[in-house]
Amino acid sequence: MKQTRTELIRGLSLTAAVMIVAGSMIGSGIFRKPSTMAQQLGSPELLILVWIAAGLITLIGAFINAEMAGMFDDTGGQYIYFQKMYGDFTSYLYGWSILSVIQTGSQAAIAYVFAEYVGYFVNYFELPAAWQQFYFTIPLAGKIYPFFDFGTKSVAIAAIIFLTGINYIGVITGGSLQTVVTYIKIGIIVIFSLLLILLGNGSISNVYSGFQLPESTSRNLFSLIGLSFAGAFWAYDAWNNITFVSGEVKNANRNVPLGLLFGVLIVIGVYVLINIAYLYVMPISEMANSPLVAASAAEKVFGNFGGNLISLIVIISTFGALNGSILATARVPFAMSKSKLFFDSLGKVHPRFGTPHVSLIVQGIWSCVLVLSGTFDTITDYVMFASWLFYLLGAYGVFVMRKKFPDVKRPYKVWGYPYTPIIFLLFASYYLIATLTSDTENAMLGLILVLSGLPFYFYSKYRSKKL
């Protein structure tokens, strides 16, 4: 007889945990955002410093989540932490935001870049101009063009559907795919970076120019650094994905914190290395005018073959990141349902595969809708603003938990407490203010999507009282 499963399977090892962290982070951002950041900053030294600073801030965030993960090993991760910190209302808003914008928006953007690089090999069809120019307006957020660049969007949607299917049939299947793909892409990125430096006809003056800032940067330094951090944080984002699948990690109280710390450290090293390699072969002004910066750098060193090769690497990288996000994120609405704060059907476990299959399907459908909502930069901008609102709350929550649960065993404690969480809080506040003032429309769209879940919250509370 076939076993009927009613609970999720604890089948992920420490290696899988590290690979989910690193593989979810290394996706599309490092191959696309350096160009935007170079355009904003105009200084190679400033560019590298932003990558390092964003990595260290992310590491502090990982320390904070490591303490929480050591205390609680439930599926849902950060959603469960917020429930313990602040209660149902805040945890619900976070869970809704994960489903409505933060992670599904991230999946949409990663899938979009995956499709962009597939387009390096294939010429996509496009809809007639009248369809591409069709738009509707969301108050405070601006115009949405669902049929613009429809060929790229179609391939992005196909990738989301395929990987949702892979994770539908088992967490071990999805975790194994994640581990293999992440090993491959880290190795290839490191080798590629070293080959650019060793074989490229570049110059160290491209990397170090004596901190000469362009006048346009000097005049708007505060806002431009804030915007550039948005790009770096997009590339570093998804570091907390592993907490969402805590309930499926072996010895989760140990392996989830270690997965967070090792995974983030690996990614910082990889990102700094590849940005130095980009700069070595391309002056910052050339980087700024190369949207597909990895392909452009490869072409300079290896010719047409190099462009094809790096495009294939990006395809593999974004494919792995998309898989990691789909695997992890579906566990949040699953946990919300188990807490009686969302529809009961999303808490179902597939009787054969032991996966949150309904949650996966709902997540996949909404991610596809978000693909249609806008271009890569639009999606990432409203995702990052919403995401950092909750990163700020999570950092403050460490102080709440130290006071609320002083005697609970903590296998890991935040390094440098209370100073490192304070640094994180200050930086998160700066980042949110800078984003709100310099990119108001996308910030407002993020807020609209966060608050759009309130009717469902009040309905779930009303329904639970009736029961």
Spell out the blueprint of helices and strands.
Blueprint: H1 14-25, H2 29-41, H3 44-71, H4 78-86, H5 88-118, H6 129-132, E1 136-138, E2 142-144, H7 150-168, H8 171-199, H9 215-219, H10 221-236, H11 241-244, H12 252-281, H13 284-288, H14 293-302, H15 304-329, H16 331-338, H17 357-371, H18 376-404, H19 419-438, H20 440-451, H21 454-466
Helix pairs in contact: 1-8, 1-12, 1-15, 2-10, 3-10, 3-12, 3-18, 3-19, 4-5, 4-18, 5-7, 5-15, 5-17, 5-18, 5-20, 7-15, 7-17, 8-12, 8-15, 10-18, 10-19, 14-15, 18-19, 18-20, 19-20
Assign an overall shape.
globular
Largest sheet features: 2 strands, antiparallel
Question: Helicity, in percent?
Answer: over 70%
* Number of β-strand runs: 2
Q: What is the CA–CA distance across the termini?
A: 36 Å
Report on the architecture of this protein:
The protein has 21 helices and 2 strands. It has 467 residues and is mainly alpha-helical. Strands 1-2 form a two-stranded antiparallel sheet. Strand 1 and strand 2 form a beta hairpin. The protein is globular, with a radius of gyration of 21 Å. It starts with 13 loop residues before the first helix and ends with a helix.
Care to give the gist of this entry?
By secondary structure, this protein is mostly helical. The protein has helices spanning 14-25, 29-41, 44-71, 78-86, 88-118, 129-132, 150-168, 171-199, 215-219, 221-236, 241-244, 252-281, 284-288, 293-302, 304-329, 331-338, 357-371, 376-404, 419-438, 440-451, 454-466; strands at residues 136-138, 142-144. 72% of the residues lie in helices and 1% in strands.
